[in-house]
Amino acid sequence: MSASVTLVLTAEQIDQYHSDGFLVMADFASADACDRLRARANEIVAAWEPGEERSVFTTNEQERVSNGEFLTSGSSTWCFFEEEAFDDTGSLRQAKELSINKIGHAQHDTDDEFRQFAYNPDLGAVARDLGMTDPRALQSMYIFKQPRIGGEVSVHQDATFLWTDPLSVIGFWFALEDATIDNGCLWAVPGTHRGPLRQLFKRNRLDDPAASDGTIFDELSDEPLPAPDSPDAVALEVKAGTMIALHGLLPHWSNPNRSALSRHAYSLHCIDGTADYPAWNWLQRPADMPLNAL
Ligand code: FE2
Question: What are 157's strand-pairing partners?
């Protein structure tokens, strides 16, 4: 019998993360763990009955839908449709199972299978090696990147959407299927996490954030984000099971999926429990649902 091994990053990996703003770790999640999460996501979608008010996840940040589901999804688990899921008559263009953009945003605390995947001791060890003192799981996104209609995610910095003082958010992105240029893998320009935070996404009632019915962008810097056609852009083509840790200031994006293959991924955004998380952040937990430690 072999002793259990606690995963700790090498000095080279830690340097790589700080120099590039991201770190790619192949074979982080087992094939079995990926298969189980995909199966569970498919079950959640199969059981999902869209209400009258359909939540569409619009990936262009300027047009992000800020409806009630979105603002309360920090403590619940919702299915959000692809922007191109519906035709002009309001009917789904393809089966419901092939029309959901993502499941979010609290399934790591509401669903056993997601809980098991997210609260993996190896992930806590990585978070601490990357500089977190008290890593806490804040936001889950199961992203389907559906065949043919999988929407783009425009260039953004995660700290725009999940701000702490001091800045601490790290995105842990897991490929559950092979991610390629064809099916919409992640892209980034190494080192651009050293640029400023460009925008903050806030609830629109700064006097009483809990009473907000929408969101606003605060412009912090007009330094342009890297363009998707930048010659320095790197396609993060990875195999299923790979985990990519993304610094909260690293601009990153993914292109639409026009291929016949889906590109399922799970992303868990973590913040440091020692940092302040302002009440104007769009995503909030009720007082009886505190963030759990990794
Ligand atoms: Fe992101």
Answer: none
Task: Give dist(CA 247, CA 156) in Å, integer.
Answer: 12
CA 81 / ligand 1 centre spacing (Å): 18
The 8-class DSSP code of residue 292 comes to E
CA 48 to ligand 1 center in whole angstroms: 25
CA of 142 to the centre of ligand 1 (A): 12
CA distance 288 to 294: 18
d(CA 1, ligand 1 centre) in Å:
40
CA distance 169 to 55: 25
What separation, in Å, do the N-terminal and C-terminal C-alpha atoms of the chain show?
27
Q: Is residue 74 part of a domain?
A: yes
Say how many domains are in the chain: 1
Calculate how far, in angstroms, residue 252's C-alpha sits from the geometric centre of ligand 1: 6
What's the Cα-to-Cα distance from 100 to each of 92, 174, 206, 287, rounded to whole Å? 10, 18, 32, 30
Report the 3 state secondary structure along 159-176.
HHHCCCECCCCEEEEEEC
User: What is the pTM (predicted TM-score) of this model?
Assistant: 0.92
**Close Cβ partners of 91 (under 8 Å, ≥ 6 residues apart):** none
For residue 205, the CA-to-ligand 1 centroid distance in Å is 24
CATH of the domain at 272: 2.60.120.620
- The per-residue pLDDT for range 172-218, each reduced to its tens digit, is 999 999 999 999 999 999 999 999 999 999 998 888 988 888 889 99
What domain range includes position 210? 11-86+95-284
Does 289 reside within a domain? Answer: no
Residue 2 lies in a domain: no
